[in-house]
Specification:
It is built from 19 helices and 15 strands. With about 500 residues, the chain is of the alpha/beta class. Bound molecules: 2-acetamido-2-deoxy-beta-D-glucopyranose (2 copies).
């Protein structure tokens, strides 16, 4: 008995030494990168034959819908400074750099009647510069800057968008696929569909909630699947790449452990990301049952002759199911959800919020980022990865975005804390068998944060938007991330030598 106790004691102590160790290793082959998006960094908005996107039009509207009245006309000027961006990626030691292509730089009118050679040349320059520096290009085909000419025709709620998108993607595979082997079709369907067509927080500000976001959801899924199949059938053998989708996923936790709140939080997750993930990654395909049920029930109650959620036919379900080599997870934060009997008066009907049927809050103790929607909740990241593993038979996951916003400054200890806590949660999920192969910081550099303009900074590198040459300088978090990548481990006690940062005039 005494011996057994002793053995137990030794085992427990060993385990505690291990669990409290401040140094943890990432698995061999784990890949690190950083991300940007075309409209947020490139500038050059009307240079060299580029056509107008919905964001070019939005940022020139009067009065401006952008918080600080700014635009992406120049942004971080990556159109001219991309070699410096690649140098930064090299300084960080990134395995890959995730960037997006501006549709109207390639096809000024959105359609393939006119292909802009100078646009192709820009991305060839970027891709070749990355490869020269041994950094893999990770190309996002669509990151929100829809051609304005296509928006005039309805944009993502016109079913023809799936054909326009395939024609555009084909031009990218033909021109870049010999060197690009990592592809994301579409970035963040919810932000495209709900925020753009069900609300006014992203262009094109259609605000047709309860209807617009669901029509868009079906079209986005079909557009994605068509491009996946195009690659799979015609390019994969020659180009040997991987192609997936990046879905923004928020973890919704029940505000209490009542059955109602648990169900409510689950419904919130299904509406937030399940509506896009289920059709692609679940064994049976189709929209999640909770989403179909809620919308059908409310639609009937509201006098619609059929559900406001479009039906996916059996052949569409089969076509979409499995159409991704990996699950690209963009994730930043978590929320709390609860059911409330007085919901009926809280939201307009029909609406996306009314369809979900929960109230969404946050815990005031969670650290708050500069963006009002962004709280640091690392255990929510862990739960999210575990649920993806359980729901979709442990798919191959790439974290394609994760990061923290500040008001600025080089000594970003709160961003350092966020990255360390989220990477700790990621390591915990890896220990539980989650199949995560890579991690992408958002963002490489400060950039145009959509309706928030330049008031929220996400960069590992600061960009001085007041200097004519848009000077980039590493923040403390850049040195921390660089060491994680170099050592392939997370050392919570690592402190970089920061002379350069401390001495800089603008801290
Ligand atoms: C958007 O639509 C909702 C109703 O669904 C309405 O309450 C709100 O005022 C609209 N917002 C704008 C900016 O038009
Ligand atoms: C295709 O990619 C795999 C791994 O990504 C690699 O092992 C293989 O050598 C590649 N084949 C060609 C023809 O490039």
């Amino acid at each position: 008995m005494a011996r057994t106790l002793l053995v137990c004691f030794v085992l427990i102590s060993l385990e505690c030494i291990w669990c409290k160790s401040s140094i943890r290793r990432f698995p061999d082959g784990f890949q690190f990168g950083a991300s940007t998006a075309a409209y947020q960094v490139e500038g050059g908005w009307s240079e060299d034959g580029k056509g107008l996107s919905i964001w070019d039009v939005a940022t020139h509207m009067q009065p401006s819908p952008i918080k600080d009245g700014s635009s992406g006309d120049i942004a971080a000027n990556s159109y001219h400074l991309y070699k410096r961006d690649v140098e930064i990626a090299k300084e960080l030691g990134l395995d890959f750099y995730r960037f997006s292509v501006s549709w109207t730089r390639i096809l000024p009118n959105g359609l393939t009647n006119k292909i802009n050679k100078l646009g192709i040349a820009y991305y060839n320059g970027l891709i070749d510069e990355l490869l020269r520096n041994n950094i893999k290009p990770f190309l996002t085909i669509y990151h929100w800057d829809l051609p304005y000419e296509l928006q005039k025709l309805g944009g993502w709620v016109n079913p023809l968008v799936t054909e326009w998108f395939v024609d555009y993607a084909k031009v990218l595979f033909d021109n870049f696929g010999d060197r690009v082997q990592l592809w994301v079709t579409i970035n963040e369907p919810k932000q495209i569909c709900y925020e753009g067509y069900g609300d006014v927080s992203k262009a094109p500000f259609i605000n047709a909630t309860g209807i617009g976001e669901y029509i868009c959801a079906k079209n986005v899924l079909l557009a994605h699947a068509k491009v996946y199949h195009l690659y799979n059938d015609h390019y994969r053998q020659l180009q040997n790449g991987s192609i997936g989708i990046s879905i923004s996923c928020t973890w919704f936790d029940p505000a209490s452990d009542t059955f109602d709140d648990q169900q409510g939080a689950r419904d919130a997750r299904r509406f937030d990301w399940g509506i896009y993930a289920h059709p692609i990654f679940s064994k049976d395909g189709d929209f999640p049952i909770e989403v179909k049920r809620n919308i059908a029930y409310k639609s009937a109650e509201q006098g619609y002759s059929k559900s406001r959620l479009p039906v996916l036919s059996n052949s569409e379900i089969t076509f979409i199911r499995g159409s991704s080599d990996f699950f690209g997870v963009n994730t930043y934060t978590s929320k709390l959800a609860y059911r409330d009997a007085s919901l009926d008066e809280m939201y307009p009907a029909p609406s996306y919020s009314d369809d979900i049927g929960v109230v969404i809050t946050k815990d005031p103790s969670w650290p708050q980022g500069q963006s009002n929607w962004l709280q640091e909740v690392p255990w929510g990241f862990y739960k999210l990865l575990m649920e993806i593993k359980d729901l979709y038979e442990n798919p191959l996951v790439f974290i394609t975005e994760n990061g923290w916003s500040t008001a600025g400054g080089l000594l970003d200890d709160d961003r350092v804390r966020y990255y360390r806590n989220y990477l700790t949660a990621l390591l915990d999920a890896l220990n539980q068998g989650c199949n995560v192969k890579g991690y992408t910081a958002w963002s490489l550099i400060d950039n145009f944060e959509w309706k928030q303009g330049y008031t929220e900074k996400f960069g590992l590198y600061q960009v001085d938007f007041t200097s004519p040459d848009l000077t980039r300088r590493p923040r403390k978090s850049a040195y921390i991330y660089k060491e994680i990548i170099r050592s392939k481990q997370l050392d919570l006690n690592f402190e970089p030598a920061l002379e350069e940062v401390y001495e800089s005039p603008d801290v």
